[in-house]
Amino acid sequence: MVELLPGPGDNATLMVSGFGATDVAEPLADERLAHRVRSADDDLPGVLYDRDPAWAPYFCPICERSYCVDHWRGSRCPYGH
C-alpha cells in the first residue's frame, strides 16, 4: 500500500507498507516530488523506484512491472532480474 499523508508541517509523508517486512515512512520536503507521487497513477511504482528503490521493493525496472510478495524471489523478480 502506498499512501501520501499530511505532515510534518507543510510537507507530506510517503508511507509504503505491506510488502514483506519492508515499510517506508519518508517526509517529502520537495513539493514537486509530492506532486509527481499524487499524479503518477499507473506509473507510481516507477516514480517511487526512480527516487529510491527502497520505496518500491516490489517493482522490477527491467520488466516495468510490480509483483506481489508471493511472486518476488528474494531480491529478484520472477524472471530473475
CA-to-CA gap between the ends?
23 Å
Estimate the helix proportion, in percent: 10-25%
The tally of beta strands, per DSSP, is: 5
Spans where pLDDT lies below 50 across 5 or more residues? none
Kindly provide the radius of gyration, computed on alpha-carbon positions and rounded to a whole number of angstroms: 13 Å
Strand fraction equals 25-35%
SSE order, as H and E?
Answer: EEEHHEE
What does this structure look like?
The protein has helices at residues 31-39, 44-51, and strands at 2-6, 12-19, 22-28, 59-60, 65-66. With 81 residues, it is of the alpha+beta class. The chain has one domain. The strands form two sheets. It has a three-stranded antiparallel β-sheet with strand order 1-2-3. β2 (12-19) and β3 (22-28) form a beta hairpin. The protein starts with a strand and ends in a 15-residue tail after the last strand.
Brief synopsis:
With 81 residues, the chain is α+β, with helices and mostly antiparallel strands. The protein has helices at 31-39, 44-51, and strands at 2-6, 12-19, 22-28, 59-60, 65-66.
Jot down its keywords.
81 residues; alpha+beta; two-stranded antiparallel sheet; 21% helix; elongated
